[in-house]
Amino acid sequence: MAHARHLAASVELGEHGRRKPGQGDAFWQFRPAQPGDPAHRIDWRRSARSDHHYVQEKEWQAAQSVLFWVDPSSSMDFASSSDLAKKGDVARLITMALAVLLVRGGERVGLATSAAPAGRGELALSRMATALLSSQEAGFADLPARSRAVFLSDFLGDTAKITRAVTRAADRGVTGVLFQILDPVEEAFPFHGRMIFEDMSGHLEHDTTEAHDLRDRYLNRLAARKSELADLARRTGWQYHTHHSGDADSAALLWLYHAIEGHR
Asked: What is the dihedral of CA 246, 250, 253, 257, to 10 degrees?
């Protein structure tokens, strides 16, 4: 939580709203008074400068729920060097930093795998952090209609579960982001000669004497997977983005914040 708060503090953000008239405290624009507008809504100072009456309109700033899913699978424990954070650690850090920013803006936050409703304030953040540390597999709960969601994963495994979850959420009016986190080695595949590849669970192993010969096939499959994710996002009105664990977390957080706010 301390690291997440520090990351959130490093990202300078202004006040946010829905940029449409509604209930809120922030001034948006003046508009000419219309029949039916109560007298107390007329801005007499602005009206005194013209021959018409004007009403202040406020930004619509009602809170919505933002639900997160952080992939708990063993593949997220990978880091290609001791200088890089594990993909899962990056995902949890960015999740909590974004949750801090959203709570600061009055939003409700929670986990997509929890039946408990999203909440506000320190209690909601504490519950999220505790649940993320448990790293337990769980099925997707039904997301509240018209809420927003962020799914963070390397998306290197079977995508059937993700496709079902996103499609089902989109049918309920949920919008969101597929945020892919990859280690730089997973993008470059810089291997040569004799290599033994093992999955993070230790159940699968592949031995080759010419690792470089696998590079084109691997990169083609990775490109196909990215295309599949981008197509899923396009079909459901979500957004898709790839972040590398060696890149600045602050840049990822800023992109995610604007992406999720753009769905308001």
From this structure: -150
C-alpha count within 13 angstroms, C-beta hemisphere, residue 4: 20
pLDDT at 61: 44
CA-to-CA dists, residue 63 to 102, 103, 118, 230, angstroms: 10, 10, 11, 28
Distance from C-alpha of 81 to C-alpha of 70, rounded to nearest angstrom: 22
Query: What pairing do the DSSP bridges indicate for beta strands 195-198 and 205-208?
Result: antiparallel
Beta bridge partners of 178: 151, 240
**CA gap 70, 242 in Å, rounded:** 15
Structure tokens at 125: 């953040």
Give residue 22's pLDDT. 55
- pLDDT averaged per 10 residues in sequence order, the chain, 264 residues: 93 58 60 80 84 73 79 94 96 97 92 87 94 77 89 95 95 96 94 81 78 88 97 97 96 95 70
Beta bridge partners of 68: 111, 150
Q: Is the dihedral of CA 200, 97, 118, 256 positive or negative?
A: negative
| N residues, the chain | 264
Cβ-based burial of 35 (10 A; exposed 0-12, middle 13-18, buried ≥19): exposed
Determine the Cα–Cα distance for residues 145 and 159; give it in Å rounded to an integer: 23
